[in-house]
Write a structure and sequence with these properties.
2 domains; alpha/beta; 290 residues; globular; six-stranded mixed β-sheet; two-stranded antiparallel sheet
Length: 290
């Protein structure tokens, strides 16, 4: 199915850091055409709860929303998220519900307690040199879509890894609490099939957008307005609206929203050849990965 119906395109750079408000969150939005995506609330320090409220109450109609997080954990490699645990969730929605259940008392959609759970800790690499016996060593476990990211030139990280500046696990866990709240009101691809109308949330990896804009994985981060405009030009987009100093988080969101607009109508990206029915319900997929 080709979805020419999308009229708006949004990208959300996300954060799993502790606390309420985060410099690492940025939201960019654009309409069809070639105008540069604009930052939503430029200069604002977003909370995760505010992002949830924006998606629930202010999202324009027929928007494709890219969310920079992993929407699930590896499952295919070992036949389960947490092999050996009788209560390991069967699919992604059950995983989101489990994260919510365990972390329900944490404010601001935080999820730091999930990996401390006695049955789950062995699967994670945590701070203080605490690597669980089930982590797998090395770089850890990867989803099938992360292998596809690597083939595209990216350097993905296992979301069972919660250590280091480039780790994605904490943000992904916090994002799963958000997805749990949105799952009954918003289509989330590929866990939901692409609907005929309405907005859709997809997982993105901002490095894929940067590579499409002429950058490399090692040079994906942009903090200069002129460099941003060069990247936007490669995505058939006019120069950006400049607001003070440019953060790499804002640049990621702006570039990725423009990239989504450019590729959203490619039917092949909605049916990647390696995305099986089972993967669509357990591991999900990164939009734009093949």
């Amino acid at each position: 199915m080709t979805p020419p119906r999308f009229r708006h395109f949004a990208a959300i750079d996300w954060s799993g850091a502790a606390g309420e408000r985060h410099a690492g969150i940025a939201v960019a939005l654009c309409a069809a055409g070639d105008a540069a995506p604009a930052l939503v609330r430029p200069g604002h320090r977003w909370s995760r709860g505010e992002v949830l409220a924006w998606l629930q109450d202010e999202l324009p109609a027929d928007t494709l929303v890219g969310f920079d997080m992993s929407m699930s954990f590896a499952h295919h490699d070992r036949g389960g998220y947490f092999p050996g645990w009788a209560e390991s969730p069967a699919d992604a929605r059950a995983l989101w519900a489990l994260v919510e259940q365990i972390c329900a008392d944490e404010p601001h959609l935080g999820a730091t307690t999930f990996a401390d759970h006695h049955a789950l800790a062995p699967h994670f690499r945590r701070h203080g040199g605490r690597e669980g016996a089930a982590f797998g060593g090395g770089r850890g476990r990867f989803r099938q879509t992360e292998h596809a990211q690597a083939r595209a030139g990216c350097r993905p990280y296992s979301n069972f890894n919660l250590v280091g500046a480039a780790q994605v696990g904490k943000g992904s866990l916090a994002g799963m609490r958000l997805l749990h709240r949105l799952s009954e009101t918003h289509a989330i691809w590929p866990f939901d099939p692409l609907p005929e109308a309405g907005s859709v949330l997809v997982e993105i990896y901002t490095t894929l957008a940067a590579i499409a804009a002429g950058r490399t994985a090692g040079r994906s981060k942009i903090r200069d307005w002129d460099d941003l405009d060069t990247a936007l030009f490669a995505l058939s987009t006019r120069p950006a609206q400049r607001h003070g100093q440019l953060s790499d988080h804002a640049a990621d969101a702006i570039i990725t929203a423009a990239w989504l607009r450019m590729i959203a109508h490619d039917p092949a990206l909605w049916s990647p050849p390696l995305l099986t029915t089972a993967l669509a319900q357990t591991e999900g997929w990164t939009f734009g990965a093949r």
